[in-house]
Design brief:
alpha+beta, 15% helix, Fumarylacetoacetate hydrolase, domain 2, five-stranded mixed beta sheet, binds zinc ion, eleven-stranded mixed beta sheet
């Protein structure tokens, strides 16, 4: 099942278009996308019976973030060995580095992003959306707490991120538009092997990242187990599971996004995000 945020309303995406959840369910679910996660099990049961012939064509430009108002966004640093190496940092043990992207940085999948001053870099990531509350969850039970997967771009301004006596990861990664998400949430039954998903990013058509989730240091179930030892994960919460190698900061010479460039981020079996970058006026 594919669940989208279409102009602020929850929608099921089918082969032929979109089914408005609130209309099709007679007001039982939605219209706000976040409301689905609060009733995830009931919504899944209803959605399995929804009539796909009610689908209408839609404008992809109206797609928003599939979880637009998560209570928490947890982002993982250094979760791929080659990315840790290109960052010049040790592979983490026990608990990976965790930061947030503030919720105001979230956007839909197809956007124009204004470049702030500094060094703006790309990080394609598998994003996990929580479906049921998770507190001290065992790895073996972690999949049961996941609503599905989507794609995130963890756009990062490296000068602010790495400045000062304690690095400013959360702020440097939270400029407006720095967390595009989508194009929809895909439930796990549609993902052939969640631990072997190819993820790529291109800048103006040139492939800059080409990784696979099989190279994660902390798997998705391990992340949920470790994180939920400390925090309670709520329905609709978002976990950005880290980026593979190939970021601009790790290249020689380094490369950062320039006005007029287009970044395309793809995960096999989920879809594609597309961001165009413009100069600050
Ligand atoms: Zn990241």
């Amino acid at each position: 099942m594919r669940i989208a945020n279409l102009a602020g309303r929850a929608a099921l995406i089918t082969e032929t278009g979109a089914v408005d959840v609130a209309t099709a369910s007679g007001g039982r679910f939605g219209p706000e996308p976040h409301a689905l996660y609060a009733q995830w099990a009931q919504f899944r049961a209803w959605a399995a019976t929804a009539d796909p012939s009610a689908a209408q064509p839609y404008d992809p430009a109206l797609l928003g973030a599939p979880t637009p108002t998560p209570v928490q966004v947890l982002a993982i640093g250094l979760n791929y060995r080659e990315h840790a190496a290109e960052s010049g940092l040790a592979v983490p043990e026990g608990m990976p580095p965790v930061f947030t992207k503030f919720v105001s940085s979230l956007s839909g999948p197809y956007t124009t992003v204004t470049l702030p001053p500094g060094k703006v870099d790309w990080e394609v990531e598998l994003a996990v959306v929580i479906g049921t509350t998770a507190t001290r969850v065992a790895e073996a039970d972690a999949w049961d707490h996941i609503a599905g997967f989507t794609i995130a771009q963890d756009i990062s301004e490296r000068a602010l991120q790495l400045s000062g006596p304690a690095p400013q990861f959360s702020l440097g990664k939270s400029h407006r538009g720095f967390c595009p998400l989508g194009p929809w949430l895909v439930t796990l039954d549609e993902i052939a092997d969640p631990s072997a998903l190819r993820l790529t990013s291109t800048v103006d058509g040139e492939t800059v990242q080409d990784g696979n989730t099989r190279d994660m240091i902390f798997s998705v179930p391990t992340l949920i187990a470790r994180l939920s030892e400390v925090v309670t994960l709520y329905p609709g919460d978002l976990i950005l599971s880290g980026t593979p190698s190939g970021v601009g900061m790790g290249r020689n010479p380094q490369r950062f996004l320039a006005p007029g460039e287009t970044l395309v981020s793809t995960i096999e079996g989920i879809g594609t995000l597309e961001q165009r970058f413009v100069a600050q006026a």
